[in-house]
Amino acid sequence: MPPSPKRTKQSPPATPHVRVAVVGSGFGGLGAGVRLRRAGITDFVILERAASVGGTWRDNSYPGCACDVPSHLYSFSFAPNPEWPRSFSHQPDIRAYLERVTDTFGLRPHLRFNAEVTELRWEQEQTRWRVTTTVGTWTADAVVSAAGPLADPQIPDIPGLAEFPGKVFHSSRWDHDYDLAGKRVAMVGTGASAAQIIPSIQPLVGRLTVFQRTPAWVMPRADREISAAEKWLHSKLPPTGKLRRATLFALRELQVDAFVRRPGALRLVQQIAVRNIERGVGDPALRAKLTPDYRIGCKRILLSNTYYPALAAPNADVVSSGLAEVRGSTLVAADGSEHEVDAIVFGTGFHVTDMPIAERVFGVEGRSLAEEWKGGMEALRGSTVRGFPNLFFVIGPNTGLGNSSMILMIESQLNYLIDALTTLSAVGATAMQPTAQAQRHWNLELQHKMTRTVWNTGGCTSWYLDAEGKNTVLWPGSTSSFRRATRKVDLGEYELIKRTAPVAEEIPA
Ligand SMILES: Cc1cc2nc3c(=O)[nH]c(=O)nc-3n(C[C@H](O)[C@H](O)[C@H](O)COP(=O)(O)OP(=O)(O)OC[C@H]3O[C@@H](n4cnc5c(N)ncnc54)[C@H](O)[C@@H]3O)c2cc1C
Fold first, then answer.
1. 150 ligand 1 Cβ < 6 A
2. Is 336 inside any structural domain?
3. Does the pTM of the predicted model rise above 0.85?
4. Which pLDDT belongs to residue 5?
């Protein structure tokens, strides 16, 4: 519902004011809502550009869409779900879980749908944010950006694509009205989404042509149904669910060292992945195409038991070069080969290192965040950025993971957010921003750790790296170390700002 500012004959319309404006209603935005309420802060709105909650799990409804971190870990610690149907649950179940979280924790009254945030502008004199959306404007003491690391699809600029006469869509904007049965379909990209889509559509399409720039390492997927007995146990004896989660957590924490400090230790894992190719693909020429030439872990490791058999099927083709041009309904690969198709599905990822929300944020002296991040995204503890007081990121720069659940990182950032807001109240300040020194020191240390990681040394390029080759996406450590780093705000790292001017035209939202 749009805000309905009070209006008198004499005064111009007042702008509704909230303590906190949250952008986005995926795991991050909903989690922020829960934690704000638990901290006794009820004066907040969650602004969502779509018409329902769910973020990633609302937008990605492609065939086969599922999580690749076990559900009992890929869920909120404060909202365990004994009813997960599979070890890696499918998108409809994760989406339904987020709808339930919304109801259970009383978030509906805070949600504003179809409210795309078009501008976030810091008002220096008033010491607050002006939040402009497609349904109205709010002012807010603090803003939480949970706009998502993988929310804005990226389609490469391919010459001739606009003139393609057939159907074109991105994996995260699946067109369910378009029937793929019997069609000649091109899948562009071989990342995590493509690896789930390919086996799901291969049996029904006429011909499947997969454009692969770089092959991924694919490991077997230990997916199975959760038995009725397990569900019963987790629901009647909640500590068993906690134990399951703790085990999944610990197994992943143990892997971190290999990714971060000892990429050589991943050799064994790579051997398992090689055997997975051998098992799934009989044809040596196809095997060669599908075998990566970089160390496992450098790009995201995919999990699938059906990907290789689907690519080896008689109606599938792997073109081991990128899509270079579209001429009518003919797709021309970089190697010059031509492929006639009816539909193109782009599994080409998202705007990650060029987060679109950054172009809409204007901080101290009107400086845009995109401008600030021209040399690469950076923040203090993945959360705050100098020049942008009281702007808190959930999944900010360098908070991504290669091997575990992003919900662990989200919950850590929410600890930090809540501690920041309660600290501000406790010390009687209105806003805070990191000192230049604290932000620089954090990022220097982080990038130093990054130099040894498999993501920087494994011999690949990936979406973790920005245009300059800097890894501004991943966290080079364990999730426990990030948890420790974000447990409490260190006031020594911050400048505090007190509101001096009286606040004009503020009414509660
Ligand atoms: C297909 C897929 C599978 C994944 N699987 C896993 C997995 O198994 N394990 C894992 O850890 N991670 C996984 N991820 C990563 C996943 O994105 C995160 O785990 C998590 O869901 C991110 O939550 P979020 O709330 O930060 O962002 P999102 O879920 O992307 O939510 C962001 C929300 O912000 C809204 N928004 C954006 N801009 C604006 C704006 N300007 N105004 C208003 N609203 C806006 C969007 O509409 C969206 O609803 C996967 C991602 C994808 C795409």
1. yes
2. yes
3. yes
4. 46
